[in-house]
Amino acid sequence: MLCEVCGFDFYDSYGDIGKGFIECHHKTPLSKITASTKTSLKDLALVCSNCHRMLHKDINVLSIEGLRERMTRV
User: Fold this and answer.
1) What are phi and psi for residue 62, nearest 5 degrees?
2) For the chain, where are the alpha helices, taking DSSP H only?
3) pTM of this prediction?
4) Per-residue model confidence as pLDDT tens digits over 23-36
């Protein structure tokens, strides 16, 4: 599984221990949804640990696409 932001693959870097490992990020912050909101796969993004932390650094501003764009400028 590849990070949807940077393309990192835990398996490529860590071998068997990284196989199938990835983190899941809610595209809409949990603080902005109600208890009755149903989450579907389109509401989630698969990201590596570093990208997940960066997305949470400014949770109300930074999107998957926004972080990807920032990374391509560096």
Assistant:
1) -85, 130
2) 10-14, 49-57, 64-73
3) 0.87
4) 999 998 888 888 89
